Amino acid sequence: MLTSLSIANYRSIMSLTLPLGALNLITGPNGSGKSNLYKALRLLAKTASGGVINSLAEEGGLHSTYWAGPETISDAMRRGDVEVQGTKRNNVMRLKLGFASDTFGYAISLGLPAPQQSAFAFDPEIKHECIFNGDYYRPASSLVERKGGVVKIRQGRQWEVISQHIPNYDSLFDSHADPASAAEVFHVREMIRSWRFYDHFRTDSDAPARKPQLGTRTPVLHHDGRDLAAALQTIIEIGDNEALDHAIEDAFPGCKLRVVTKDDGRFSLEFFQKGLLRPLTGAELSDGTLRFVLWIAALLTPRPPALMVLNEPETSLHPDLLPALARLIGHASQHSQIWVISHANRLINALNEHPACHSIALEKVLGQTEVQGQGMLDGPNWNWPE
Ligand SMILES: Nc1ncnc2c1ncn2[C@@H]1O[C@H](COP(=O)(O)OP(=O)(O)OP(=O)(O)O)[C@@H](O)[C@H]1O
Ligand SMILES: [Mg+2]
């Protein structure tokens, strides 16, 4: 489980360290930085699948994603006594992302190349990475460090250099995830790789989730929901079938959901609704019903990840369904750490009733995302290694 997340200089997040619990609920007005926080977490996840530099480039590169405000915000600026204005930068541009967990912590820092004769002057590169023990980085808790192309690993009281020339676009996880020589790197990579992000499921008439599909065992629903029927059948056969029936009954009293196999081996949904003489197929379900069923398949996964991130799961659901969704999310939080970003009051209120719910309300102060009620010194301890 992650115990804290820290971000610096990413979009509206100049500097933020959040304490995390089993079920984290992120709320806040439009423009407060909820999506920016989500994107930062997704970018962090890309470090473990070889895509962090490309993802940053796709988002517009470092110049676009970098905090556009001043390097420091003075008390006088906060009070409104003086205008917000930039001063000469004292520090080099560094976008930093990191987390601590109940096993290892990780931090990465990205920047621009040193001035050089190259057309790739705006190509971001990895400047620094570190894996550490404990709640936050201290030199004594550091286990693996990467600086430029050099990677060193702690061996008792000594440091052993295990690489001198890793490319600046490769992370530690791309170059050193061999469990025998760098067990911590392997462990952290596998943890990050297990994180699962669900954004907006498609439910339009051509949505893949509506179509019959070849039934292969599917313990993890695809992020666009294309393997919905197979994922549901997998829950029925090897997962928590009872919880599935319960979730349907909770949201749609009197209804039943079945998965049927066609002659050609393809799976299709059948949704039995009170008052109808035949079940409805996936193609016939309403957007909201289909979306709720997608959330059931995602949240009751027989292979729960370390972390599951749900971005605005209320989209296109009727407010009456939201308490049932909150109960489903609460159930999933027994097996995975959950991160929910939401706008919907009914969902927020229902999640807040859950004993494990850790609510984080964001606000924007002078263009900067802050946690409501968290003073400058109230957050968890955090140090950047660099
Ligand atoms: N590079 C940047 N530097 C500073 N602020 C930025 C930068 N890029 C985007 N922003 C700010 O981030 C804000 C958008 O944040 P975000 O999309 O996370 O909001 P949100 O809380 O998800 O809002 P909504 O509820 O509307 O989806 C915008 O107000 C924009 O001004
Ligand atoms: Mg948003």
TL;DR?
This protein is an alpha+beta fold and 386 residues long. The protein is 26% helix and 27% strand.
Mean residue pLDDT: 93
End-to-end separation in angstroms reads 25 Å
E-strand count = 17
Q: What's the helix-strand series?
A: EEEHHHHEEEEEEHHEEHHEEHEHEHEE
For the largest beta-sheet, the strand count, sense and barrel status come to: 8 strands, antiparallel
Low-confidence stretches: none
Structure overview:
This protein is 26% helix and 27% strand. It is built from eleven helices and 17 strands. The mean pLDDT is 93. Helix 8 packs antiparallel against helix 9, helix 9 packs parallel to helix 10 and helix 10 packs across helix 11. It is an alpha+beta fold and 386 residues long. Among the domains are: 175 residues, no CATH class; 84 residues, no CATH class. The chain starts with a strand and ends in a 15-residue tail after the last strand. The strands form three sheets. Strands 2-1-4-5-6-7-8-9 form an eight-stranded antiparallel β-sheet, with helices on one face. Bound molecules: adenosine-5'-triphosphate and magnesium ion. Adenosine-5'-triphosphate (ATP) binds next to helix 1.
